[in-house]
Amino acid sequence: MTTWIPDNVIVSWSLPDSGGSPITGFKVFLRESDNVTYSTDLTDCNVTTSPQSTSCTIPVQSLR
């Protein structure tokens, strides 16, 4: 799910069932304006440092 607020976009998700295995991180992919290309946001959404996180906040300025 995404939520737009004036200066940020908040991306959130539910933790999947891991079957008891530890979750080591997530990758957040951003779709580019061409609707074909994707990139990862490792600056604002580096959830490998907090694998139990269920959201990240991306400044709107970095999406331009």
Helix content: under 10%
How many domains, in number, for the residues? 1
Task: Give me the secondary-structure category.
Answer: mainly beta
Query: Average pLDDT across residues?
Result: 81
Q: How big a fraction of the residues is strand? A: 25-35%
What radius of gyration results from the CA coordinates? 13 Å
Low-confidence stretches: none
- Number of E-type strands: 5
Give me the number of helical elements: 0
Tell me the series of helices and strands, N- to C-terminal.
EEEEE
What does this structure look like?
The chain is mainly β. The chain has one domain (2-15, 24-63). The protein is built from no helices and 5 strands. The chain has strands spanning 2-5, 8-12, 29-31, 38-40, 55-59. The strands form 2 sheets. Strands 1-2-5 form a 3-stranded antiparallel sheet, with no helix packed on it.
Topology:
Elements lengths: L1 E4 L2 E5 L16 E3 L6 E3 L14 E5 L5
Antiparallel strand pairs: 1-2, 2-5, 3-4
Short description:
The chain has 64 residues and is mainly β. It has strands at residues 2-5, 8-12, 29-31, 38-40, 55-59. The mean pLDDT is 81.
Keywords for this entry:
64 residues; mainly beta; 3-stranded antiparallel beta sheet; two-stranded antiparallel sheet
